[in-house]
Write a structure and sequence with these properties.
By secondary structure, the protein is α/β, with parallel strands linked by helices. The protein has a single domain, classed as Flavodoxin domain (Rossmann fold), CATH 3.40.50. Helix content is about 35%, strand content about 20%. Strands 1, 2, 3, 4, 5 and 6 form a 6-stranded parallel β-sheet that branches. The longest helix is centred in the C-terminal third of the chain and has 27 residues, at about 165-190. InterPro entries: Flavoprotein-like_sf, FMN_Rdtase-like_dom, NAD(P)H-dep_reductase.
């Protein structure tokens, strides 16, 4: 499949915490995406592309410098056909950095599918995902039913950051297969009839 035909997947790394485990999880799911000929990947790491946390008043222009910060993220989200959110669970929810990035954007999410790779302790980040489903529905996105939930994630990878549990690899493939179906279907639909929110 040519690069033009490939589905463009933006992997959004939600954690910005110092010492975060997110890079390990991100490289693992990126490896799955790299193995596919139907998908191309762009990792949007919010730790490397921080966005402002103060929003302008309604109808007012954003503060100086905001445009430059958004320029490192917004065009990449707009270009994506689909998204994978890599998120930990903080206090039964997802990180403020991820909510901030979501809220800075709107039409970039419209009529596009979102898959989730969550990680954490005993819950595997599932409570973060459940809240993200509500948020993304408000933004006219379609969330993928299958998720990848890494329970006690720190013990799932060896010293080389290689996944030790084949069931997690199988879950990643199943989620990405569903993501590909929805991404293709929605891309075709948007080409025929632009989405109106």
């Amino acid at each position: 499949m040519s690069k033009q035909q490939q589905l463009r997947v933006a992997v959004v790394v939600g954690s910005t915490r110092e010492g975060r485990f997110a890079p390990v999880v991100t490289q693992w799911i990126k490896g799955h995406l790299d193995q596919r000929d139907d998908m191309g990947v762009d990792v949007v790491d919010l730790g490397e592309t921080p966005l402002p946390t103060v929003f302008p008043a309604f109808g007012q222009p954003p503060a100086p410098g905001t445009g430059e910060a958004l320029a490192a993220v917004s065009p990449r989200l707009a270009a994506a056909d689909a998204f994978v959110f890599v998120t930990p669970e903080y206090n039964h929810s997802f990180p403020a950095s991820l909510k901030n990035a979501i809220d800075w954007h709107n039409e970039q999410w419209h009529a596009k599918p979102v898959g989730f790779v969550s990680y954490g302790g005993i819950s595997g980040g599932l409570r973060a995902v459940e809240q993200l489903r509500l948020v993304m529905a408000e933004l006219h996105a379609t969330t993928i039913r299958n998720t990848v939930s890494l329970q006690h994630a720190w013990g799932l990878f060896d010293e080389e950051h290689t996944m030790k549990d084949p069931e997690c690899d199988a879950a990643a493939k199943a989620m990405l297969d569903q993501l590909a179906w929805w991404a293709q279907a929605l891309r075709d639909a948007r080409a025929v009839r632009p989405y109106a929110a």
